[in-house]
TrEMBL record:
Pfam families: rRNA_methylase. This is Methyltransferase domain-containing protein. The keyword Methyltransferase applies. Keywords: Methyltransferase, Transferase. One of its GO terms (biological process) is methylation. InterPro entries: MnmM_MeTrfase (IPR010719), SAM-dependent_MTases_sf (IPR029063). GO terms for molecular function: methyltransferase activity.
Amino acid sequence: MLERVLPYAKTLLSSVIKEGDVAVDATAGNGHDTVFLAELVGDSGFVYAFDIQQQAVDATKDRLKKHGLEKRVKVILDGHEHLSKYIQEEIAGAIFNLGYLPGGSHDIITKGATTISAIQQLLSRLKIGGLIVLVVYPGHEGGKEERDAVIEYVSQLPQKYVHVLRYEFINQKNDPPFLIALEKMKKLPDSE
């Protein structure tokens, strides 16, 4: 059976994030991925979760508290393009859900330039064998521009250093989400 995009994102991250690791939720949203990552890293690991909306930060903190996981996570009200200000250690994995906050304003969206900046910063901190997973939603205003910018950027990453996977269902209508996964194979010469 083919896994849908969101479950497949979790399958991929589960394969690389272990107890004691550091992980990043680059788009905290309503906190579902943040809770998932916090469960993966265990008591000895840590998660950084970013969002630019107070509504998302509050929802994520509430969800973490309900699950008793708030001590494992730092929820940061800032754009993921600033993650270098907060994260110095090596990370095992990261996830992005691009687009807008479900239930929030459709005018506040992720953008290609800031997403690419965050990917670059994450790649320099990602351990060998670590993954960055992006769930791309191109069906909203501005979504196709971000999709195109991200695809152009990741397509040019040297395969010797980063393997890039695109996972999608090609017969679904209305711009279905798809997944891009970046696996770091070797230390990148120009980013570290």
